[in-house]
Each structure stands twice: as structure tokens, then as C-alpha cells.
Amino acid sequence: MGERRKPELLIPAGSLEVLxxxxxxxxxxxxxxxxxxxxxxxxKNFSPDEMAEGIAxxxxxxxxxxxxxxxxxxxxxxxxxxxYFRELREMEPEPCDALIISDPGMFAVAKExxxxxxxxxxxxxxxxxxxxxxxxWRLGAKRVVSARELSLKEIRDxxxxxxxxxxIESFVQGSMCISYSGRCLLSSFLTxxxxxxxxxxxxxxxxYAVMEESRPGEYMPLYENERGTYIFNSKDLCMIEHxxxxxxxxxxxxxxxxxxxxxxYAATVTRAYRRAIDDYFASPGKYAAGxxxxxxxxxxxxxxxxxxxxxxxxxxxxxxxxxxxxxxxEYTYLGRIEETAVDAANSALxxxxxxxxxxxxxSLEIMKPDGRTLEATVEGLYTAEGEPVDSCPHxxxxxxxxxxxxxxxxxxxxxxxxxx
Length: 420
Fold this sequence. Notes:
The protein is of the alpha/beta class. It contains ten helices and 18 strands.
């Protein structure tokens, strides 16, 4: 491995719950969005108070927080952006660790308002060559996020031509976009909702057919399938089997995509990549021995079929999904343990906020940050007031559960669903 640095594991968080989960399950850093200027307008995102709370929580556990402000700004955005950056600069008890920006105008505003801010250049800026990296470095950027269209060879070449202290961040897991580095016009054209301003409706996942000009009304599938075709629908990226190659390419931060995802997704990918990275740096042999576990675990999060994207060359037709836009979803998220206690009969109880219905007597799994997954039976269910119930059908209800196996604060509850 030479002098290669151990990469940062960077996890998306669309809410305080997901942020806390990512921190508990091994993230080195999280990236979040405020209520404006990020590219996930449909995510829950963070209010100023939630952002302050999340940053304080992450910092208390030695985890960094980066805030996205990576829209392609229009004139009317700039004055408000200046006020936003001032608010971030003055945030109490402490500000975030870096801003993620793609637009040169937003970059200039951030530098004027908050000169000391560390700035990372978003993949949305189409960063495909070493001169682009050097351009941003000379302007004061600390890190550049590589375009998802780069191969490992191209990233290695960039690493060799930029200062050693400059950082490369690259996506290793998550959705791939039809357009270069996410600069897509489909959503804006078809629905009036601009992907470059955070409102993408993902029309690349819709079903399409083709109609020939002289035969109006005759719709022909573009692929031999009775349900039509999903010609723009890429497989998801997954590089957990290629940690050695990513490290040797000189990537400093392994980025997971998915600020729209829930806590179960964050826990699953964080735990799997955390262990894979740590095992590899302990010894390549230990990493090789763990490959089957990493692959099994990473398939348990909600995902489309996996590919390696552009890392080993341009994708072929095998990197597309032609017959469906649905996710593989084998597990249901039930809740996160917030507190534990012992009742009058000396039975262990765990408090959680219900996310999906389950019932007394059901089998579920307790997912622990240390890599263990315990099978458990629901032996008791109680309301916040202590009243016994047979099931929990009400979303976001606060409940206590008695399980046949031990659950601790920060553990997640999930249920394996039958294969359909």
C-alpha cells in the first residue's frame, strides 16, 4: 500500500436520525443539506437548529460534517447565499467542517463571507482532469469530488499530478446518473422541476418506448420486453469488492450516495464499508477473507442491481436495467433503539420510534454497529405509558419492546421479508 492514507468514509444524512445512525455505525464524516442550496430538495434536510444539533453530536464523537450548497445558482440566489454562509459561519456551538460547492459564483460568495471555510468542489462541477483539480486548488479548494465518469487509471493520473495535500473524493456506492456528473435536463424539460436546483423527479427511471414519425400511435419497445424499456436506468454503483484498487488509486474519501435514504440504509452501508476498510488496512488477507460477508451485507440495503460504474472502463449494456425501475428491497426498517431500561420483573426493555408495523411473536433482527446481527423474537410490546399491545400499526409511535436477545441504545431493528 506504500504511503497511501487510510480513506475517510463519508456517509449521506438527510435527517438527524440518519446522522446519528451513520456516526454510531462508523462514519468518519457525514454530509448534510440545509433547507436551501443543496441538490436534494425533496430530502427532509436540516433546519438551522437541527444542523447545529447534528454538528455538535457528530463532533462529540469525532466525526466531521460537510454541508452541501451545490446548486447551479442564478442571480437571485447569490444574496441569499451570502446570508446562508454567514449563518453557517456563526453557527453555535460550532460550525461545520466544510462546504460542498459546485458553482464558481457560490464559491466566490463563500470565500468572501467565510474566508476560513474549507471548501470541497462537488462532482456537479464535472471534475474530469488534473488541470481542473489544480484550478480549484489555486483558488483555495481543499478537496475535489471526482466525476463519476472517471476510471481508476484517470484518478491515479490525477493523484500523481496534484499536490499531495490536496484531497480526492470519489463515489463508491449508490445511484448512477444518466448525465455527466448529474448535470441533467430531463427533469426540467419533462416536468419543470430542475435537477440542477435540487428538484429532480428521476425521469431516467421511467418506462419508455419509441414512435416512428410516419406511424403515429405505434409504440415500439426499444428492448425485447413486454413491459417496455428503461433505457436510461443505470445499475447502482458498488465498489466494496475493490477497496484495494480504490486505495491504490490515491482516493482520500470514499463517498456513499443517498441523502434520500433512511437510517437502515445508512447503517447497512456504513457498517459494511467500515469493516471492509478497516480489515484491508489491518491486512489484505483479512480483507480477502471478509469479502463474502461484505458482499452479503451490502446486498441487504435497498438497491438496484450493482455494477462498478466507470472505474474499470466505460460501462456496457450490462450496466443498464432494461426491464424494471424497482429496487431490490429484502429488509424492512422497524426502528432505532433510543433507550434501554429494566421493568419491575427485571426484564430488559428497549424504547424506539416505530417506522413500520410489526407484531407480538414476530421474528426480527437486531443490527449492531460492531458487525453483529442478532435474531430475536418480539416477546412484549408496550406503549410509552406502559400499556401492552399486540402490534404497532401507528407510524412514528413511541413504544417499548421486549426482545429475546439483547438490544442496546443505537441498535437498529429490521425484518427480513420473504422473497417475492
